[in-house]
Amino acid sequence: MITEDLETFSDTVEEEHPVEACTKCTACNTVCPVARSTEIFRGPKFLGPESERYRDQQEATVTAGLDLCSGCKLCEVTCPSQVSIQEYIRRAQNKGAREKGRTLRDWLLGHTRLLSRFGSLTAPLANFGNRNPFFRLLMERFVGIHRRRPLPKYQWLTFENWFKRRNRQNSPPPLGEGRVGATRRTVAYFYGCWVDFNERRLGQQVVAVLERNGIEVIVPRQQCCGIPAVVNSNTDLARKYGVENVRRLSMLPEGVDIIASSTSCGLMLKHDYAHLLEIPGAEAVGARVYDICEYLWMLHEAGELDVDFQPVDTRVLYHAPCHLKSHGIGYPAMRLLRLIPGVRVEEVDEGCCGISGTYGVKVEKYDLSMKIGSRLFEAVKAAGSDSVLADCETCRMQVEHGAGSRSAHPIDILARAYGYR
Amino acid sequence: MKCDVAVVGSGLAALVATRTLQRAGRDPVLIWPGLSSLYFLYATVDVLGYANASSAQPVEEPAAGVRQLIAQNPDHPYARAGLAALEDGSSLLLEWLREAGFNWQGTLNRNLLLPTALGTPKPSCLVPTSMVAGDLQRDEPIAFCGFDGYQDFVPELAASNLSGAWNGGGRTVTAVRVSLPGIKPDRLFTSIDLARNFEDATFRREVAGRLRLAVKDSGARLGMPAVLGLTHDTDVHAEFEKECGHPVFEIPTLPPSVLGLRLFDRLRRHVQETGVEMIWAAPAHDAEVANGRCLRIHLKSAGREQPLEARAYVLALEDAVDGAWRAGAHTVRDPFFHQVLAQHATPAERTDESLFAPQPFATVGYPVSDRLQPVDKDGHPLASNVFVAGGGMAGYDPTGIKARGGMAIATGYRAAQEAMAA
């Protein structure tokens, strides 16, 4: 018999997954790349849901061990109960940092856009300094950036300026040379700080590949996605950036999809703005965001992708970034590459590369970051291929540094197959 | 996204279904909702340990036992899948394990009797070679080996239980303990930590040396917790055995199961290496049905729902483990067709107070047709191209009869066959 009491007790099901959904199965601890590499780290189960049960917003956060979490989110990917394990760690890290203050180093690394803007304006000088052993020693001593970590090279001409200049000088190339489908599409490109200040060429390739397929590319004004701030325990700053981006991207006309070529920028826009940062309006924006390869594959399935590829005779390895797994879209880059004649692509399935954005840059985490990535480096060396593809820019930096190989975004091969340099 | 056959799940049933499709030249995609029971519950592949949940007499010949069970109980998942699916699925799995570099043994015609971590004998059918020396049908004395500070295996308890239970107390069982190099006993560590340490040759040699000194009986087999390597079990076990100078066998421990993790990780990597795409972190739900066929299901990807169109679908869900069902206060529904699978006046009706009694919640699942299609309350298929394998089937409760692996293999294999024909 159904009692009155139980009748009023809702029969609807909680679709969100609170901390109580954790069954303490330990799946997350077994896949955690940090826990695998150091005994000091107690693992996501303990620092996430287990500690969360005892955390009190009114009391000071116990921060011991929290900063070792690199934020790869493999714990969440693995959780059979879909608990937001990493988000609990993130919130506690951030609360701890708010209480105790941040180091200058972490403040700087959180302000990547500011730092990159400066690096770009002073490009020859900044690049010289970043490669000068004496300067690096000083940086390690006084800032806390490990001296052996290669820092990205800055470019004087930003992607944003290149794009503006191109559109001013000669109107964009005629659309639709290789157009197959009937739909007229316009996309907004969220290029991110990396493409803007460090790898303009990737942005140019993304634009070329999209335009080749008859898609109009617009570049809205944008701010840093905020992930460097998130991982440096500065969610207030990340939220500020996020609010700005959501406001701008919300103004895009209906039907314009948003494309990101950086895995982690894309994940911020799709997921973290709405969940971790709780930005109003973020869900509507997130639902419009596509990873570039995800988008191109969608075009292919709709019969709208130009598959008139030139053969590219190459054997490449593909490393799937941890944050790509969090997108929940599979590996669209692998599917696209298999369409190109001559391309032999193999996955190196050795897990996290270890750099996790700015994590592996820090003096106290550099060695750990290299240890985490060691399995991947060995596999890359053993495979004897000249190039590793990865969708994430810091994964590419780490693989180049750790395995001594070349690296590129998968779009690079696609652009070559379309005949672009 | 579009694909040929979508397999939803990450347990043994899902993996066997995927492999079956792949071997037949089809192009499956594996939708992965998180780690599965393979990883906490599995060590061996048990086909039939007991004829029914209250029997105390182990089944000696699993295949014969299953044949009998099918004859007596035509609604049992084994009966739905058929004995042929069990036989063909097991050969497929054993061949797959060999190809993936694993060393497993066993046939459907004989159960081994292996000691558990509590020292009770348990019937098992297909087992990793690293466990075989523990067979209680053999006579050599056993020394259980534990490690200081490791809480998930108590050799003294296992020894005292087994010495009473094994052949009426007619065999020698002892217990030893050694300390581990470099690990302080006050540090909390798990079988996973230990398994990683055992992959290091120096660590292994040191432990083997300490065990050799501790075990006095030169003819004893050494039973130790299953921590001999997280990935390279075959090599680690063989080398450790040589260094100890005794036959060594592994005993499954509390979750997480190192043996299950090895199995899952290797098979997952193998399907990926051989070209099957796996979509991580995307729990599936909401089937769209038109004219009796499922057109698409939806994946909960970051930011939005991702439609997935396949010609056929295998739903290898795992009920209680992966939270597949949506349970409110009174009703349990499924996430794909939103069918009411069970109704209870109070949630307490779903459980039995005795932990070791069959649990009513375990049997909640899709009623299925002869072809393993989920059916509505009138017995009509909800969609002709959707097939159920594993714990998602109604009446699927392998715990008491010790049939977890066999039922997963049989239903996974059969569901894949049906998906190919759909």
Structure description:
The complex is a heterodimer of chains A (about 425) and B (about 425). By secondary structure, chain A is an alpha/beta fold. Chain A has helices at about 5-10, 25-30, 35, 45-50, 75-80, 85-100, 105-110, 110-120, 125-130, 135-140, 160-170, 190-195, 200-210, 225-230, 235-250, 265-270, 280-285, 290-300, 320-325, 330-335, 365-385, 395-405, 410-415, and strands at about 185-190, 215-220, 255-260, 290, 315-320, 345, 385-390, 405-410. Chain A folds into three domains: about 10-100, Alpha-helical ferredoxin (Fumarate Reductase Iron-sulfur Protein, Chain B, domain 2); about 160-300, Rossmann fold (3-Layer(aba) Sandwich); about 315-415, Rossmann fold, CATH 3.40.50. In chain A, strands 2-1-3-4 form a four-stranded parallel β-sheet. In chain A, strands 6-5-7-8 form a four-stranded parallel β-sheet. Helices cover about 50% and strands about 10% of the residues of chain A. Chain A has 23 helices and eight strands. Chain A is globular, with a radius of gyration of 22 Å. With about 425 residues, chain B is of the alpha/beta class. Chain B folds into two domains: about 1-100 and about 265-420, FAD/NAD(P)-binding domain; about 140-245. Chain B has 13 helices and 18 strands. Chain B has helices at about 10-25, 35-40, 60-70, 75-80, 85-100, 130, 155-165, 190-200, 200-215, 235-245, 260-275, 320, 405-420, and strands at about 1-10, 30, 105, 110-115, 120-125, 125-130, 140-145, 175-180, 220-225, 250, 275-280, 285-290, 295-300, 305-315, 325, 330-335, 340-345, 385-390. In chain B, the strands form five sheets. In chain B, strands 1, 2, 11, 12, 13, 14 and 18 form a seven-stranded mixed β-sheet that branches. The two termini of chain B are about 20 Å apart. The chains are: A alpha/beta (about 425), B alpha/beta (about 425). Chains A and B meet through helix 2, helix 5, helix 16, helix 18 and helix 19 of A and helix 8, helix 11, strand 11 and strand 15 of B.
